[in-house]
Design a protein that fits this description.
By secondary structure, the protein is α/β, with parallel strands linked by helices. Helices cover 48% and strands 12% of the residues. It has a 6-stranded parallel beta sheet, sandwiched between helices. The protein has a 4-stranded antiparallel beta sheet with strand order 7-10-8-9, with helices on one face. Strand 2, helix 7 and strand 3 form a beta-alpha-beta unit. Helix 2 packs antiparallel against helix 4. The two termini are 45 Å apart. The mean pLDDT is 82.
């Protein structure tokens, strides 16, 4: 590491991540229409400069300046005495310049009206923004669910990218505040590369079509294998029909949400216990709630493996509580007692403030027993 790199690192001036050059859409083929006006402009400037030098013995700089103000018809007048032949040449130059300038403006307006160049520039700028994201979610297909999901992600400061193949995505992105988005088919490999899926935390597919969700889940799992990613993505899908829930899980979705089932559960809960209607919503979804819940994965190397819950002293050290344990086989144990053993590759459900939960996570994932537990 040289001195300049050390200074950059010390001042946190490290280069921002950039997308792969191959992912950026080509803009140069769409600029061919601007070649002719540019060539005509250069040729007109050259002819005008040479003409003033030969006809009226202008210096090179004076000839370039006189050609420029004549070609652009700004009306500054003559910078030196011009002969009759020079005036005829000036009139010809004005006509040629006006024709060239008019054709250039016409071509420019026609290309901009097509919108191809503008859309390419927008996509290139968007890809640079997406390349800076880490641990984000890729939300596929825009609908009412997408609006609410992205709203919750934004309130919880979780980055996301919205992908939809319809051209209306640009209008929806402005209306619903999608800071990063792409107009593309979500299940293609190129789209996954553009959405920076390699650095993403997971994928959320919210299509109303079961076929779209199946294609996306299969593509994501194939993407994992082909790119040899160390950790699988957390895939969340929706299923309108209850019978499709198990299908999507078997195909590789980690979690499948059925709006029909959720609505039925919510209505039945309200009917059975009206006083508890908003308790879960207030606890889990309210952004200013100091309490939070999170599952902490216990790796094989953790010092807490085969230790009793009370031996971890989490409540005394971090003021958090373990209210559930999910075993490796998927069996869930609620409100475990202090004598319950912590097994490897289980998940403990911790409740407390976000900062205290983070401390608990650091304690439970260490290889050696932390010093804090020895003095409690």
């Amino acid at each position: 590491m040289n001195l300049l790199e050390r200074i950059r690192k010390f001042l946190h001036w490290e280069k921002s991540p950039t997308p792969n050059v191959k992912l950026l859409p080509e803009i140069y083929p769409h600029l061919k229409a601007f070649r002719l006006p540019l060539i005509l402009t250069v040729m007109t400037m050259m002819v005008g400069t040479i003409g003033y030098v030969l006809i009226d013995n202008f210096t090179l700089m004076d000839a370039i300046y006189q050609t420029g103000i004549t070609f652009t018809t700004v009306g500054f007048g003559e910078i030196a005495e011009v002969s009759d032949a020079g005036r005829i040449f000036t009139i010809t130059l004005i006509i040629a310049g006006f024709a060239t300038f008019s054709s250039a403006i016409g071509i420019l307006v026609a290309e901009l009206n097509k919108g191809i160049v503008v859309s390419i520039l927008k996509e290139r700028r968007m890809l640079y923004q997406i390349a800076r994201l880490k641990n984000h979610f890729v939300v596929c297909y825009h609908n009412d669910y997408t609006i609410e999901v992205t709203k919750q992600l934004r309130e919880n400061h979780i980055p996301f990218v919205v992908i939809d193949p319809r051209p209306e995505i640009h209008e929806w992105a402005v209306k619903y505040r999608y800071s990063t988005y792409l107009q593309a088919e979500p299940y293609t490999e190129l789209t996954m590369l553009k959405s920076h899926l390699a650095s993403a935390k997971g994928v959320i597919t919210l299509s109303n079509s079961i076929a779209d969700n199946i294609a996306l889940i299969a593509s994501v799992r194939l993407f994992e294998k082909e790119h040899a990613l160390p950790n699988p993505y957390f895939v969340i899908a929706t299923a309108e029909a209850i019978g499709d829930v198990e299908k999507l899980k078997k195909l590789g979705s980690d979690s499948v949400i059925s709006p029909t089932k959720l609505t039925a559960q919510r209505v039945s809960a309200m009917a059975a216990r009206p006083d508890m209607e908003n308790l879960l919503e207030e606890f889990l979804y309210k952004s200013d709630n100091p309490l939070d819940m999170e599952e902490v994965f216990i790796p094989k190397y953790s010092w807490a493996v085969l230790k009793k819950l009370k031996e971890t002293h989490l409540r005394d050290i971090t003021n958090t509580s373990i209210i559930g344990i999910t075993r490796k086989d998927g069996k869930f144990l609620s409100m475990p007692k202090g004598d319950i053993l912590i097994t490897s590759e289980c998940k403990v459900l911790v409740i407390g403030t976000q900062s205290n939960i983070q401390i608990s996570k650091e304690i439970l994932t260490q290889r050696k027993r932390p010093k804090e537990t020895r003095f409690v």
